[in-house]
From TrEMBL:
SUPFAM superfamilies for the chain: Winged helix' DNA-binding domain (SSF46785)
Organism per entry: Sphingomonas piscis
Entry keyword annotation includes Cell division: yes
This protein's name: SMC-Scp complex subunit ScpB
Highest taxon, organism lineage: Bacteria
Cited InterPro entries: ScpB_csome_segregation, WH-like_DNA-bd_sf, WH_DNA-bd_sf
Pfam families: SMC_ScpB
An annotated GO BP: chromosome separation
Keyword Cytoplasm in annotation: yes
Coiled coil region boundaries: none
Organism taxonomic ancestry: Bacteria, Pseudomonadati, Pseudomonadota, Alphaproteobacteria, Sphingomonadales
Keywords assigned by UniProt, alphabetized: Cell cycle, Cell division, Chromosome partition, Cytoplasm
Amino acid sequence: MDEFARAVEATLFASAVPLTVQEIGEHSGDGDVDEALTALQALYEGHGIELVERGGRWHFQTAPDLAHLLRRTREEPRRLSRAATETLAIIAYHEPVSRAEIEAIRGVQISKGTLDVLMDSGWVRPAGRREAPGRPLLYATTGEFLSHFGLQSRRDLPGIDDLKAAGLLDPLDEAMNGSLGQLQLESGDKED
């Protein structure tokens, strides 16, 4: 391994947070960061730790098959309310999105606490303001969201067919949507 790859390795080990390629280069000096990352990924493949990229940021993590060895305390799963879960899904699939747009999609108002919980978890962040009257604040997901859910990017979010196959869509909603579609077809037939 060359000196630059060693510097990249040391930078990643010393960092408390995942780093972008640009941030790695700022700390490591002159060299091809992408080439060094590729070499390090190959070097650590099959080891107890691995070099991974999530949402454009690089970090070392325990190999998934060994993570259970390091858990000394019982991890409590983070439970989100239904409102928070729906809000997070809307933000993930429609970002950047304003509070009013979230409410329009959900069909109900959301409490400020719902967005606070998502921001406190590190999964949602303010993403600027829309160039519209009132300049509403926009929300988007974070790199921590991608990392927590094991996604490389938002393109890895499951599609409607994936959700149906996993049984995650409410059958009542599906039945209602099917009935509405059938009613529209029948009313369209009568008008012709």
